Amino acid sequence: MRIDEQYYLIIDLEATCCDRGTVPREEMEIIEIGAVMQDARTFDVVSEFQQVVRPVRHPVLTGFCRALTGTTQADVDAGVPYADALSTLTAWAAPFDDHLFCSWGNYDRRQFQQDCAFHDVEYPFGTRHLNLKEEFARATNSRRNKGLSGALAELRLEFSGQPHRGLDDARNIARIVRRVCLGA
Predict the structure, then answer these.
(1) How confident is the model at residue 11 (pLDDT cuts 50, 70, 90)?
(2) What is the reported pTM?
(3) Which of 14, 29, 32, 135 is the catalytic position?
């Protein structure tokens, strides 16, 4: 898994959700952005980013969402508007101008696109995106794409942090990339 860019911008998002259909997929909104900037040659994480976002379509988190993500209502109430979060993220990533947006699957890219359209904000990542779930499947000759926990288990790595927290998930994705690429 080699790229021309110097860095992998690994992003994991958490969004409003419900297990009872009260938050339709097309109305889900980002509530947390977690990101790491990983050197594409050494695979060291050189910087980290985390931002809680205040949703507007469904501003009150469901019990399912709070339990899944560990995000509280107070967290999102104190969060920033989406446009501000995206601006802060792009400012954080700017010094690493030679990077490729990566995520575990296509969900994060699609959620960004959906939220940018809803909030009338320009999508900042261009057309290139690396689906690390697919890359993992190719690198390990898996017949099916594994979730983050399954990939960690296959590599005999324990999850570090709290699952379904954006920054912790991004850190664990970077660990997978490092292990697959360096064997370390």
Answers:
(1) very high
(2) 0.95
(3) 14
